[in-house]
Amino acid sequence: MTDRDFVVVENLGKTFHLRGGGTLRAVRDVSLRVARGETLGVVGESGCGKSTLARLMLHLIVPSEGRVFVDGDELGALTPAALRRKRRHMQMIFQDPQAALDPRMRVGELLAEPLLVHRIGSTAERARRVAELCDLVGLPDDAAARWPHEFSGGQRQRISIARALALDPSLVVADEPVSALDVSVQAQILNLLADLRQRFRLTYVFISHDLAVIRHISDRVAVMYLGELVELAEVDAFFAAPAHPYARALLSAVLEPGAEARAQDRPVAGEPPSPEAPPPGCKFHPRCPVAMEICRTTAPPTQDIGTAGAPHLVRCWLHAAPHRALPGAGAAA
Known about the structure:
Elements: E1 5-17, E2 23-35, E3 39-43, H1 50-57, E4 65-70, E5 73-74, H2 80-86, E6 90-93, H3 97-100, H4 107-117, H5 123-136, H6 153-165, E7 171-175, H7 183-200, E8 203-208, H8 211-217, E9 220-225, E10 228-234, H9 235-240, H10 245-252, E11 302-304, E12 313-315
Parallel strand pairs: 3-8, 3-9, 6-7, 7-8
Antiparallel strand pairs: 1-2, 1-4, 4-5, 9-10, 10-12, 11-12
Helix pairs in contact: 4-5, 6-7
């Protein structure tokens, strides 16, 4: 861990025990670091473990294995009281603002509630803070007196963002915060989040299935597949040359008009395997167009194919000696 690391995830995993005696490993051996003030975008298909990872990083659910550090503190080692205090500095924005906002509370009450829970300020001070938050996210002057249902989807997400900022957090985890919004409104919310990050030096972990959104807001990209981290790179390096076959397939599905598809890139075929019964070896091999025999039997190691000072991690046999010289292995490196 370095002074620059703000969030450190070490070998994180989560196993859910199902009715009937089965198990589901939603997250498997994930390790990553997020620098202070950085935005890490986490992308992958539905069911790949993105949202579970987000909740694990905030200790909203308890990991089955591994550790999470935020600003030097290991969350799992904190007492309940210490974790409660730590939560002031770690907040989450959820996908569906309608479900995240209590319809029985006015907007002013929703925004003041975190301050009440943590016993911050007098009644007058909380009212001033609510007005500041409404102005900060572009809500109308009378917003505090109104009900959530009186606002549009984009405005409700602004309310959710204001609520997340009420306690002046350092870390914000955003779980698909624009996926339920119209495209034009998405752009407004993304620009708002970018402005807030710069203004308050926020650290974001931004979860999405939309690579265009990830490209717009992220400094680095983490790609997940079936609970595993399969690629992690700076955003420009990732979009210029995605290294994992799954990442290349995801990107080929969102090529901009006029862009040329590379020969080895093709959309992802088939459906992801059940996380209750994952395949052996590389979890992507049943859908991979360049799978080798070793992929079917042995899980690949994580390799760094980046340059000095700019790591580019990929979990794929194509980038592990002695397989780098095989056809297609170097095409995306």
